[in-house]
Every structure is written in C-alpha cells, then in structure tokens.
Sequence to fold (628 residues):
Amino acid sequence: MKIKISIPTERIHDPIISESIIETGIRLNIMVANIDSTYGELIADVKDSRFNRIKRALESRGAIVAILDQPIHRDEEECVDCGACISVCPMNVYTFDETWSLCVDEKKCIQCGMCIKMCPHGALKLGE
Amino acid sequence: MVKKSIHEINKKIEDGSVNVVTAEEMVGIVENLGVEGAAREVDVVTTGTFGAMCSSGLMLNLGHSEPPIKIQKVWFNNVEAYSGLAAVDAYLGAAQTSDTRGMQYGGAHVIEDLLRGKEINVHATSYGTDCYPRKVLDTAITLEDLNEAVLLNPRNAYQKYAAATNSSKRILNTYMGELLPNFGNVTYSGAGVLSPLSNDPSYETIGTGTRIFMGGAQGYVIGNGTQHSPSSGFGTLMLKGNLKEMNPDYLRAASFTGYGTTLYMGIGIPIPILNEKLAAATAVRDEDIMTDILDYAVGSRDKPVIRQVNYAELKSGSVQIEGKDVPTSSLSSFKNARKIANELKEWVKHGKFFVSMPVEKLCCEGSAKSMKQTQAVPLVKDVMSDFIVTIKKDQTVQDAAKKIWENSFNHLAVISDTGELLGILTAWDISKAVAENIFDSVESVMTKKVLTCAPNEPVDLAARRLDRYGVSAMPVIDAQRRVLGIITSDNISKLLARRY
Fold:
C-alpha cells in the first residue's frame, strides 16, 4: 500500500526513517521525498502486512503516517480522452489503450495533484 | 487516369453504392491497391479532429425586448460578449473569461451550457434612444429562445500545430497545458493522419462553401481561417454551423490553468476522391506530417525550435530531446477524432451527407504576418548600464569591498581569467562574509547561480524575470558568457520615468 509520512519541523533533524527501518527491518520503497530544513513529506510503498509495525515505529519518533487510499478519480462524462494528463503524471497512472481510450491505474496514484491542474476539462479530482 | 465528378459521387451516395473510408483506413488501401486502384475504388475519405480551438464564438440574436433596447454592453452568465452590432445581436467569444469566476468559466462554457439546454442569465446595458428607450435589461434565456445561434469560428482545424516543451527551471502554464521544467514533457495538438487539411494539402476540395461535420451538425467552410499560413503547412479554416443542431459530444468547453478558457470543437471534412492526386494525398500518414517542438521558456513570438518531429513520434508517447526520452501528451483527443471520421463516414454511406466542391478555392500560398508595431519595444541593450565593475575570482574580499566603495556600484561581476561570468558579488554578500569572518577569495563568497539576460531580449521579459526571482540586477552576457553590461531595477524605472 502507498503511505504518506510527514515529518514535522521539530523532528526534521532526527534520522526518523533510517531508525524505523533498522528497528523493524521493514523495507520502505520511497517514491517521492520532499525534505528541507522546515518540513518533510515522503510517499512510500510498504507491504500491507507490515504497515502497522512501521507506522508504530515512525509515529513513536514523531512522524505522522497516513494511508493514501483516496486516489485520483476521473469523471468519465467530462473526460474527452485527450491524454493531457499522461505526460505530467510522475507515476504513469495514465495510459492509452489500443483504441486511444484513456486508462487510469489508480493503484499507482500518489495523490500529487499534477494532473488535476493539467486537465483542460476539469475531469480529475482527488478523494471521491 | 481516374476522373470522377462530384455529381457522380453524390449519385452514388444517393443510391447507396458509395465507397467511403476514413483517412486512417485510406493509408492501407493505397498501400495495397496503389494510388490508381485506390482512386478507382474509393469515392470519399473522411477526416476528423477534436481539439482546443480558441478562435471560436457564437453569433446570436436575442429577439427584441419590450420596451426595446439597443444593447451596448451585454453579459451571459457574467461573460461579456461583443454587441457593437444591431440592437440585439451579439458575438460571444469562447476565450472571453467570466467577470466573476475568472478562468474557470468563459464564453466556451456559456456555449456548452446553452447546447445542454441550461438557462443562461443575460444582463445588458444601453444609453437609450428614441427608438430603443430601454437602458437596462436582465433576463434568462435558453438556446430555444434565441432566434439564431450560429457558431462563427474565425480559426479552426489547423492543418498541424507546433508541439511545446520547456527548457526553464519552473513549470509553465500555457495554452499548450502544463509544461514541466527541464524538458519534462512535450505537449502537442492535432489529429495527424486524420487531420482534415493535411489530407488535402493543396486545398483542392476544401474551400469556401465546402459542407462539413461541425460539432455533430452539418456546417460549412466559409473561407480560410485567420492567420492562414499555407506556405509553411499551417493552413486554417473559418467555419460556420448552427449551434441548435449540434451535439455536446462534439463541442466541449475547457479551461487551461493559468491561461484561460477555450472551446474543444469536433470537425470532420469529407474529401471526394476525384482523381489520383487526391487518393495519394489522403494516404498521408502520421510519419509524413512534420512539425516543430518549440521552447515555451522563451516568452517571445519567435520561440526557438528544439527539434523537428513527426506525428508518429509524438503519438508514440515519448520523444527524444538531448538524448533523453521525454513523455508526450496530446491535447486533442484522437479517440474523438476517429469517432468523428467514422460518424461522417456513416452519414455519407447512408445518404445523409452529400459532398460538395468549394465555390471558391483557398489561398495555397502565403504566410501570416507579424504585428506591425509603431512603438519600438525597448531591448535590454537599450537600457542596460554599459558600465560594469568586474573582479577576478581569486581576488580578496577586501579588494571587492574597495571596488564597491570606489565605484559606488553595488554589483560586481566575478569573471574568470578569460572574461567569462562566474558569479556576482553584492555589498550584501560582503557584509555576510564580514559577519561570518570569512576573508578568503571572492570565489568563496560570491553568488554562483546568477540570473542573466541577453542584450537582444525585450526589457519586459527581463523585468518579469527580476520580479519573479526577487533580484535587483542581472548581468547582460553574450553567447560566450562575456559580460556586456548590467540591467538593474533602476534602469527599468528610469525607462518608465522617461515614458510617462
């Protein structure tokens, strides 16, 4: 499953991710990481069965862990299958099938919202 | 030699024996039968395109009110239309944005809402005359209530269109969509193999009077489009069609973030195969249609060409730029273009649509001109300071402080031994060095990431860059990175002070 790990300002100098991985031995596949001196936000993939343990380890060190379970939603009435969304998605959520119909693989979505701004027809929304 | 007349083809449409194929299917037919065989076999080739066409709008007539009004200004759902025409005529442009909702809603949305049967608020004002005494009018109308609702689109169905990319370090929001930094993506428009004008590039059958598929109804070509540039393969069409007969599947309002609203139009044009030349032309493939990828990081009319590309590459999902695979996005819907070509094919096949010859041919040569500007745009080189104080990278911080003090000049350009720009050093950088007790070479305290500009850039662009990055000056450099001068916010304010 995809999770979002937020690291608040007061903990930004602690090696939270490394410590949690070493403690639990659970592998996190980090897909997006935005960390600076004030805030950190990471998107990672983790096995469903390991989620609770890594969540406990991370949260005991001050991180906030959320499951990304509200992927992008496409309004099929509004969508005209142009494919504008395809090239801005960092996770390759969007593809064309052989009939040039747009296919959406919601499982890959990390809720970054890039495609929402790109869609000329307002057909994409998060969390519906 | 194959020679067919429009009359013969229309007779076949009438008796149901006509052979119609789409421009996509025609590629294989010409490959198999050859040009002559295909010209003999095929009577009509249908094309289609479905994409953003900003230069579109609705000419409408509201009917007269009681007491009557000669409308001077008019708004539909708070989107202003042009009414400098007779009393209750107005032209609503697709790209006009709402006074209250901004770029989210515009003329295109009003047109789509009308087509979907929704009620539209009308607000109109006038100065009042003896024959039209009313001064203000508020009402709500639907499409049915209008006497005429005719789409009059000055520029639609571009033969092909240049693709877009972005070499800069920030996201650009354009009418070509979101362009990601550092050549992060390429966007393109047009239907390639199905593009109407690309299938009749000598405009033999597409011209003034040609009957077409427009927004799901029968419409007409009424001439070449504005900015028609046939010599470079960028022909355009001016179209007319009755909104009351259209279908929202083929007419959609859209909004590009940071740009504004536009109308997605579905256009299909049948090409009667009168001879071998037309059979050969309609066999055009995606691979044969070349266009340029332009760099939208340059905010100028003449954007640099990054490379040439054909529609097959664009449609493959990625193109190579500087050795990197860059993902592509289409802004037009190829699925809908195909749907239109197929629907038009069915119409012709079932005797619901007859082909026509133009009453007047479109111009086959010439290009759109650039705007004549009577006020010269000031360039960076016109306003920059030629006086620039430079310092070598291995000089000391004290040397730098001395130079700033002696020349009362706040920006030092740090240069290499060969004169190339390496960085910039300001009084602020020196204060910081002093505060931190660093007295090494200039190189260790200078700002290395320097914004620069070219001497021939318009001042407006330089000003935009200064503003965006919150800096007060930029060195002006040539192609060899030699410093020619410096442009400061001071230079720009002096320019404005002179102007007003």
